[in-house]
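Thread amino acids onto this structure.
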């Protein structure tokens, strides 16, 4: 897959140079180290310099199912590519297996890139992997990425905050460890205390999420949207009200991964729907 990105395009010789004449020296990707890197929600243009640097030097790329194939294709020629991850809880490697693989490859003096969709530390189990590496004495670096709850909304023309709409936002996972909604969520507090709610991985439990929010007092006419496959050429957006979003989604059949956003910021999309796939 690495052949899809020409050798002339990757950063083989630091420092990187900017058009303004500034230079920066990126940290070396040492053999035996693991970098936990956020790949963003989809568009390869959202990668950080450190993410591109890691792709250009990694010996092995272990990527989640949610990482856009265009990003994986940016790995240097000759890098080994391994898919290890789940999509919406279906199949894939278990977390213990992934942790063990990272430790084993690092022990072989490989430069190991663990490539994760969005941000490693936002509902991405990056903390679990980092803890396993720390306990095994493996050097690691965390490279934050653009999380879907911010970048994906932006590509749908929905700002996560807007001064006239909200001064707070709450991110919630719609997929707990058992595949159901996470336990311990204060639905009354969410419904009444957070002007904007962003649910990750909530498509399979959308009916239940809507039911709980309405039962807790969230207004049924609150604007809502489901963003499917955000920041990719296949992105779709379904808009409705909180009370109507489940039926609208059932009619539109959007594909996972998908975000649910509830709150007044959704209404700004009619003015801010800027993105067109290339």
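Threaded sequence (278 positions):
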């Amino acid at each position: 897959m690495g052949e899809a990105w020409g050798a002339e395009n990757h950063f083989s010789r630091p420092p990187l140079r900017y058009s303004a004449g500034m230079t920066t020296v990126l940290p070396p990707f040492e053999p035996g180290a693991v970098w936990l890197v956020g790949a963003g929600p989809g568009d390869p243009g959202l990668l950080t310099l450190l993410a591109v640097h890691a792709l250009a030097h990694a010996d092995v790329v272990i990527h989640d199912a949610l990482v856009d194939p265009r990003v994986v294709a940016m790995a240097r020629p000759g890098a080994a590519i391994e898919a290890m991850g789940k999509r919406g809880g279906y199949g894939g490697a278990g977390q213990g297996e992934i942790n063990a693989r990272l430790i084993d490859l690092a022990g072989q003096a490989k430069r190991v890139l663990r490539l994760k969709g969005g941000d490693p530390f936002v509902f991405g189990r990056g903390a679990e992997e980092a803890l396993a590496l720390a306990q095994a004495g493996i050097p690691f670096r965390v490279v934050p990425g653009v999380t879907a709850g911010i970048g994906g909304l932006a590509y749908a023309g929905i700002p996560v905050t807007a001064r006239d709409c909200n001064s707070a936002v709450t991110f919630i996972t719609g997929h707990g460890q058992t595949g159901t909604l996470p336990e311990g969520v204060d639905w009354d507090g969410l419904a009444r205390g957070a002007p904007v709610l962003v649910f990750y991985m909530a498509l399979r439990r959308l009916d239940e999420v809507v039911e709980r929010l309405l039962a807790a007092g969230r207004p049924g006419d609150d604007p809502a949207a489901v963003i499917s496959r955000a920041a990719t050429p296949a992105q779709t957006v379904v808009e409705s009200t909180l009370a109507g979003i489940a039926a609208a989604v059932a009619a539109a059949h959007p594909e996972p991964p998908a975000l649910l956003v509830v709150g007044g910021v959704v209404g700004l999309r009619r003015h801010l729907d800027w993105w067109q796939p290339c």
